[in-house]
Every structure is written in structure tokens, then in C-alpha cells.
Amino acid sequence: MSQDLSRFILEREHAALVVVDIQERLVAAMPPEVLESTVSTVELLLKAWKELDLPVITTEQYTRGLGMTLDRLQEVGSGDAIEKMSFSCCGEDPFNERLEKLGVRQVVLVGMETHVCVYQTAL
Which of 88, 115, 116 has the alpha carbon at shortest distance from 18? Predict the structure, then answer.
């Protein structure tokens, strides 16, 4: 018996990549091999997303304390980041406004601190 998975197919006109809080001071706590794997995967996603000319939304949690998005990701096109103070990206008006402006109804959500900010955003 097969399941209908059509609801999981991304629609180009309604999809965005959301990169959550991959910041300088957060990466310092990661083991080097985990950091490299994570950043390489996000880099690949960013490159693919840009090649397909799809929108990318990047967030940064409390930049004064945690720093900016990694230079390596900025170089491949992470875009202008939305600074946030809430754990959920959805708790920030600029984030919600960007989603609305772009007509986004589907997101591919990636980031650091999965157990906090990525999780809270997904809820």
C-alpha cells in the first residue's frame, strides 16, 4: 500500500530555503568534523537554491552576542540576514513579512541549534 506523498513536493513559486542561525560564536562549540559536515551541506543547499533562482531567507540570533552568519555561507549567497531575538523565526515580524512578500508557503529549514531555534521555528 503506497502513501500519497504529494503534499511534500515543493512548489517552486511557494518555496524558500530558511537558514537559521549559523553564526560565528555558535560554531565555536561544535566538534570540527560535525561543523564541516554541517556547513558543507548548507553550502551545497545554498548553491543549488541559487542555481534554481529560489529565495533564501537567513536569520541571525542576537548578533551582538553571537556574531554574524559564517563568512563561508555569506560568500555563496546566504543573503541579507534578519536579526531576531525570539527563538522561533516566526516570532519576528520582518521574517513573517518576508515570507508573505515572497508568497512562501513551504520552507526547507536548516540551521544550527536544532533543539532550540530550528525546532521552535518548525512548530
Answer: 88
